Amino acid sequence: MKPAIYLYVLFLAGMFACQPSPQEAPPKEGQKPEESLEQMPFEVFLKRFNLDTGFQLSRIEFPLDIVSYQENENYEFEEVTQPLAKVEWEPTSLDYEEETSEQTNDAFTQSIAVRQDSAFVQFRGVNNGIYVDYVFAIKMGVWNLVVIKDYSM
């Protein structure tokens, strides 16, 4: 009877030894190897998001909510959310150059706030009413754009 137990334990050990570890797991269908299970740092993600339009489209949660203020019939501003379909999206760059804060028209600044599972790319106008936030969140281990909040006046 002992040889049977020995063979059973040997069989189980072999099964677990042949299992790939989470770091070695093959990428899911449609994923490139470098984006499989390792979470990309937000700065690296944002650079690629700005440069690669195909990657950008794959990392937006559609329909994308666009939140803004609209004036109602009582001349009061109320927050409204409008969904944006994938076919309506135009490639966007969130790159920022310091000179934009000093330009004559539409000057703005950019700040980036990264938290554990979310990030905010914020654009603030310089005396012109620009007030836009791009909100990113980690979904299934990868960064995705989940909402744009445009409170510009």
Count every beta strand, where a strand is a DSSP E run of 2 or more residues.
6
What is the strand arrangement across the widest sheet?
2-1-6-5-4-3
* Number of helices, counting only DSSP H or I runs of 4 residues or more: 3
Helix coverage percent of residues?
10-25%
**What's the mean pLDDT score?**
81
Report the portion of residues in β strands: 25-35%
Largest sheet: 6 strands, mixed
Class computed from helices, strands and strand pairing: alpha+beta
Distance between the termini: 82 Å
Compressed to H and E, one letter per element, the order equals HHHEEEEEE
- What ranges have pLDDT less than 50 throughout 5 or more consecutive residues? 1-28, 33-37
Given the C-alpha coordinates, what overall shape results?
globular
Any idea what the radius of gyration is? 23 Å
What kind of oligomer do you see?
Answer: single chain
Could you characterize what this model shows?
- The chain has 153 residues and is α+β, with helices and mostly antiparallel strands.
- Helix content is 22%, strand content 35%.
- The chain has 3 helices and 6 strands, in the order H-H-H-E-E-E-E-E-E.
- Strands 2-1-6-5-4-3 form a 6-stranded mixed β-sheet.
- A hairpin with a 2-residue loop joins strand 5 (131-139) and strand 6.
List its salient traits.
single chain; 153 residues; alpha+beta; six-stranded mixed sheet; 35% strand; disordered N terminus
